[in-house]
UniProtKB/TrEMBL annotation:
<dbReference type="InterPro" id="IPR003346">
    <property type="entry name" value="Transposase_20"/>
</dbReference>
<feature type="domain" description="Transposase IS116/IS110/IS902 C-terminal">
    <location>
        <begin position="211"/>
        <end position="296"/>
    </location>
</feature>
<feature type="domain" description="Transposase IS110-like N-terminal">
    <location>
        <begin position="5"/>
        <end position="147"/>
    </location>
</feature>
<dbReference type="Pfam" id="PF02371">
    <property type="entry name" value="Transposase_20"/>
</dbReference>
<dbReference type="GO" id="GO:0003677">
    <property type="term" value="F:DNA binding"/>
</dbReference>
<dbReference type="Pfam" id="PF01548">
    <property type="entry name" value="DEDD_Tnp_IS110"/>
</dbReference>
<dbReference type="GO" id="GO:0006313">
    <property type="term" value="P:DNA transposition"/>
</dbReference>
<dbReference type="InterPro" id="IPR047650">
    <property type="entry name" value="Transpos_IS110"/>
</dbReference>
<protein>
    <submittedName>
        <fullName>Transposase</fullName>
    </submittedName>
</protein>
<dbReference type="InterPro" id="IPR002525">
    <property type="entry name" value="Transp_IS110-like_N"/>
</dbReference>
<dbReference type="GO" id="GO:0004803">
    <property type="term" value="F:transposase activity"/>
</dbReference>
């Protein structure tokens, strides 16, 4: 007989509720992580036991701990789970029991768990993104010191090559000298790290046929191709491009009442990384592909530039969907053409 376990996962400990096939509580207990109690408990479970855990920030280590023994672990979508089973009183015991009961009734709104190689690629890409953010912060700190001291750098960008050389030797008070030297060393170190991880990403993208396929679209390079692929995962899990756009949070919210339907702002639910990279790439697509450029100007004229870029990002994702499904490279339309290749470019 199958058993069902709900785990309310925390950083240092977890609460576990185990039910039988009739929904009766067989066990409820708190397990600590440092002593290995949770791992030992899960290792003793029968292989057919079904487990549900909420998709919190530390779910991955638990999944990798048991994915070979319990590959059908269900990762519960936090927002949708709360919508199904909202409670005025929330405790670890209640949350774990609710997850177990939803799992037994097959009502857990499951989140997608990508294969390990895709998860590893995501970690590399997000590591690079974090380094770039840190470098931007350091550049802003340097610009702030330049502003405080009233220095005039040789170039407009305070962190350009010539400006960095100037800032390394310019005469300023010791308190500013200390900060400038430290920030410049940090900037150089971060730039070196970004170059190294970028080489790893480029090598990985060159060995991935799907990444090479996506790079035929204007603006998509090694980093963005791998990021798009790692966020989408298996393209077959999306029945059509609209579902993919919804997953990226690029679909409009829908308000329907009394027989009337109104489209609102973007839902912004789903993969924030996929939504971010497509909006960033939209500028390159507008400049390089006539079909995206005409779409942008048509929408921007009526709704503004930001809405125009989002419209292009959505059209790009629909095109990417068709490219991956049909294994076709991107082919821009001839200038002035009014035709479209069905399924590849949808406005």
């Amino acid at each position: 007989m199958s058993q069902y376990i709900g785990i309310d996962l925390h950083k240092a400990k977890s609460f576990v509720t185990r039910l039988d096939h009739r929904g009766r509580v067989l066990e409820q207990r708190e397990l600590t992580h440092a002593t290995g109690e949770l791992q030992q408990y899960l290792e003793r479970l029968p292989a057919e036991t079904r487990i549900a855990v909420e998709a919190t920030g530390n779910w991955m280590w638990l999944y990798e701990l048991i994915e070979e023994r319990h590959p059908d672990l269900v990762l519960a979508h936090p927002l949708k789970t709360k919508a199904i089973a909202s409670a005025r009183i929330k405790t670890d015991k209640i949350d774990a029991t609710t997850l177990a009961q939803l799992l037994r009734a097959d009502l857990v709104p499951a989140a997608y768990i990508p294969p390990r190689d895709v998860r590893d690629t995501r970690e590399v890409l997000r590591y690079r993104a974090s380094l770039v953010r840190l470098r931007t912060q350091v550049k802003n700190k340097i610009a702030a010191v330049v502003s405080k001291t009233g220095l005039q750098t040789p170039t407009r960008m305070a962190c350009g090559v010539k400006s960095r050389r100037f800032l390394a030797t310019v005469s300023v008070r010791s308190c500013y000298r200390l900060g400038l030297d430290g920030y410049l060393r940090t900037l150089e170190h971060l730039t070196t790290e970004i170059r190294q991880v970028s080489k790893t990403i480029e090598t990985q993208a060159a060995a991935e046929p799907q990444a090479r396929l996506l790079q035929t679209m204007p603006g998509i390079g090694a980093y963005s191709a791998l990021l798009i692929l790692s966020e989408i995962g298996d393209i077959q899990r999306f029945p059509d491009s609209r579902h993919l756009c919804s997953y990226a949070g690029l679909g409009p919210s829908v308000h329907a009442s009394g027989g009337k339907t109104r489209l609102g702002r973007l839902t912004k639910q789903g993969s924030s990384w996929l939504r971010w990279i497509l909006v960033e790439l939209s500028v390159h697509a507008i400049n390089a592909a006539p079909q995206f450029r005409s779409l942008y100007y048509r929408v921007a004229k009526k709704h503004g530039r930001n809405v125009g870029r989002v419209a292009v990002a959505r059209a790009m994702l629909k095109t990417i969907y068709a490219m991956l499904k049909k294994q076709e490279a991107f082919r821009p339309m001839a200038k002035g053409s009014t035709g479209q290749r069905p399924g590849v470019m949808v406005g």
